[in-house]
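Annotated sample (chain length 445).
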Amino acid sequence: MDSVISKFEQIMMPVANKISANRYLLAMRDAFSMLLPFIIVGSFFGIIEWVVLDPWGTIMGENGMNLGAAITGLSGHAYETSGFVRTMQMLQGLCNNVVTVGFGIFSFLLVAAFSYRLGGIWGGDKFATALTALGAFIIMTPQQVIGKAGDAIGGFSLDYFGNKGVLTSIIVATVASWIFVKLSQNEKIRIKMPDTVPPAVSKSFAVLIPVFITLTCFTVLATVLAQAQFMGKTALNDLIYAVIQAPLMGFSQGIGFSLLYQGIIWFFWWFGIHGHNVTAAIQNMVYMPAQLANQTGDASYIFSNGFFEAGLMHIMGLLIAIFIFSKRDSWRAVAKLGFPAMLFNIQEPIAFGLPIVLNPILLVPYILAPLANTVIGWIAISTGLVPIFKYVVPWTMPMFFGGMIGTGSIMGGLLQIVWLVVDIVIYAPFVIAANKMKDEDTEDD
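Output written by the structure step:
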């Protein structure tokens, strides 16, 4: 087994180096890395909002630890209308403001970070490239929200700024950055100011025409989309969803597609890119509607948003395998630091601290574990051993409780325990092999 893993590492190391050397992919990875603080902070406040402060949640609610009733001595309508509940909801609102920065405007921040890095690798002014791309993204974002009565009201919808707009943000940032950089490198359209003009002003005039042409192109595109209404859609983000959703709806519940979906997610993560945000279009178009259909009782889908979110904890299998089998001090130290976050399914400290990212020896178990979980969950639910994931549960819900509440049965929690045991078994040989490789390195020294 050790020799097989060692040979695999020898094969994968050049592949990992080649992938990491791609400047475009490197810029994308760096952009997601730049947003990690916002994601982690948003996740932390999300845990407080959804798990701790929610009057009907895991800690305060009667379906959880029921501390709300213990603190107030109230129940039923009296509890619902109490000052305690109002205070908890007010605090939830404060936390939600931070969550919005981490998730609600994620695509907006991604445009800025990605185009900034693209401007650098393509030889343009990074700051000007980022501002231009942000302008293009705003132009492509509908500036009217349709109200409940069907009338148009002002403002932007967070549906276009959150993770639902990740594909749009990547496309717009790429195209806008490329157009702007190419135009700004054309000396014929650069406005040159006298040497006596301050440098900042001179740089601004130098990119004036490239900014004008780039934003004009996107204005024309946005106008064409709004007027032509391709597939009945007037926004680029909605059009992308419509194009992708149609072919996926027919076979999204198949085990083959679900495995492919999981494989793509975790490969992106292994490369250092937030796989769930990149594939959010599939999740929001296919698996979230399946989740809502389960909740309303209109259908009984095996593969839903809740099913896949319950499997986020497979990294916990790696941590336990490290605690049991690893002799590497660095791995054990990172595992100890990342363990509290992983209790709430926040894997970023482990992914980048261990690291898992671009680590050839961890590629196979990192992708194999969620695939194995998918197959086991599919069999368990298909045979009726475990109910479908019917209820919407925050993805930060700790293991066992998330599965139990999501399915409405203790069998859902036990399914997560089975997943964890399988994950430990999958990760263990690779962790042990890493010990041997470290020993060999030490002997060479």
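Annotation: The chain has 23 helices and two strands.
Annotation: The chain has a mean pLDDT of 86.
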